[in-house]
Amino acid sequence: MEVCGDLNSDNLKNRPLTPLRILRGIIILLVYLSTAFMFLIYFAPVFALGLRLLSVHQSRKVISFIFGHWLALWPYLFETVNGTTVVFSGDSIPVEKRVLLIANHRTEVDWMYLWNIALRKGCLGYIKYVLKSSLMRLPIFGWGFHILEFIPVERKREVDEPVMLEMLSTFKDPREPLWLALFPEGTDFTEEKCKRSQEFAKEAGLPALSNVLLPKTRGFGVCLEALHNSLDAVYDLTIAYKPRCPSFMDNVFGTDPSEVHIHVRRVPLNEIPANEAESSAWLMDSYQLKDKLLSDFSAQGQFPNQRPEEELSILKCIATFSVVISLTALFIYLTLYTHSSFKVYVGLSFTYLSFATYYKFRPSPSIGCCRGDSSKEAKTH
């Protein structure tokens, strides 16, 4: 069952791939690749290496500020350039800095639309993902995932659990904003995967779901175990699309989607059991609710309790693109047309980013700085 709002009554169609859209998409890809490369090359060694040796907290703060502006290019692309309408429903989201987001995984780009929420709440630079480790090997973007401290997993419990616990232990400081995003299904939805999931559910005596896959509960449990005392809430998000689920290239060329519908259920932490078995049951119940929401969406074309949300500012969009592109142009000029020391810096930076991403290297502050951070944290408590 395809739940992407494929309803005749809506008269929504995917936009045709015209020569103009192809040209615009190629330009957009070049812009994103060049800006990502130059931002990482020039900013990452200074702030993810140099500043981090002094203070992890300050390093994360600056990295989040800089790359939060780069990430903002994507929501602006979706809504302002492509003309995609993002429709919110369910609970309103207060300004909260430390939350766990769980969402269904309809397509390969669901995770990109979480940026539309985070941007509106001023937390875009602080969003982290639990994602499959193969994505860390992507050219350029893999560097970004490493610098932004996304958590890679192999989808093997015995391998992933120690890695998750180790990385999550570094995010316990309540001073640091954190939007941790998890897709408990572990993979994007297809009809074939759904059939396999239903067969497994039947054998295990679990509910058969039609629009989502059975969630893998341990990853959710590990996140709660590591961060339970420092989170404000869990945002249970259900995502659907019209007229069909988009791919990455649909986003780039602006052909799909016309609408993205995001249903929000905000759950305070004290309403989620800390016990592993009970939290697993809670997650399973949440996915049964998601399944029902998506069935209703397929029939009705919308989620219940639609609500208005702040529109993205066109002026901020223009300003963000202008600043990011101007800085990128400056970095390209410094690299190609000025003193050779910049070429040396770029070469060293390239080497460091390749090494750090491959070996999962993140420097720790010196002992003195660690003590300073610890004493500050102790005072906050």
From TrEMBL:
Keywords: Acyltransferase, Membrane, Transferase, Transmembrane, Transmembrane helix. Residues 99-221 form the Phospholipid/glycerol acyltransferase domain. CDD domains: LPLAT_LCLAT1-like. This is 1-acylglycerol-3-phosphate O-acyltransferase. It holds the Pfam family Acyltransf_C. GO terms for cellular component: endomembrane system. Its EC number is 2.3.1.51. SUPFAM superfamilies: Glycerol-3-phosphate (1)-acyltransferase. GO terms for molecular function: 1-acylglycerol-3-phosphate O-acyltransferase activity. It comes from Eutrema salsugineum. One of its GO terms (biological process) is CDP-diacylglycerol biosynthetic process. It catalyses: a 1-acyl-sn-glycero-3-phosphate + an acyl-CoA = a 1,2-diacyl-sn-glycero-3-phosphate + CoA. Belongs to the 1-acyl-sn-glycerol-3-phosphate acyltransferase family. It is an enzyme of class 2 (transferase). Pathway: Lipid metabolism; Phospholipid metabolism; CDP-diacylglycerol biosynthesis; CDP-diacylglycerol from sn-glycerol 3-phosphate: step 2/3. InterPro entries: Acyltransf_C, Plipid/glycerol_acylTrfase. The chain crosses the membrane at residues 22-50, 314-336, 342-361.
